[in-house]
């Protein structure tokens, strides 16, 4: 399944977490499932904190990229953008809050589900929940800001 990240312009597709052009990155894909957003990821053994559990910084990283991807989906919807090759809006993180509720097992797929809590002209707030084995392990709140196409020039 394609995610919003597949539609980012090439100059915005290098992100370690979600850039399709970053061969060393996580290659996250975020997509709509009803009114919520979803990202799935299988941690590798080298993402270990304590044997059997995922490193917390890694979890923050996937929540962060899920949040910016969710915001990009929300802006595309808000602006009536029909996604096609490399026309997706791109966002950066303005704020990230992560709460670790329980250790996250490393032995299977994790799923991050997002809700668009607020959206304005340039800013979106995403509420995220990270599940492992069907159990809620981490929550996050991401404020993402829409960037212009010439961002970083």
TrEMBL record:
It catalyses: (5Z,8Z,11Z,14Z)-eicosatetraenoyl-CoA + H2O = (5Z,8Z,11Z,14Z)-eicosatetraenoate + CoA + H(+); (9Z)-octadecenoyl-CoA + H2O = (9Z)-octadecenoate + CoA + H(+); hexadecanoyl-CoA + H2O = hexadecanoate + CoA + H(+); octanoyl-CoA + H2O = octanoate + CoA + H(+). It holds the Pfam family 4HBT. It is an enzyme of class 3 (hydrolase). Residues 52-134 form the Thioesterase domain. Its EC number is 3.1.2.2. It is a peripheral membrane protein. Keywords: Apoptosis, Cell membrane, Cell projection, Cytoplasm, Fatty acid metabolism, Hydrolase, Lipid metabolism, Membrane, Transit peptide. SUPFAM superfamilies: Thioesterase/thiol ester dehydrase-isomerase. Its main location: membrane. It is found in: Cell projection, Ruffle membrane; Cytoplasm; Membrane. Belongs to the THEM4/THEM5 thioesterase family. This is Acyl-coenzyme A thioesterase THEM4. It comes from Marinifilum caeruleilacunae. The lineage of its organism: Bacteria, Pseudomonadati, Bacteroidota, Bacteroidia, Marinilabiliales.
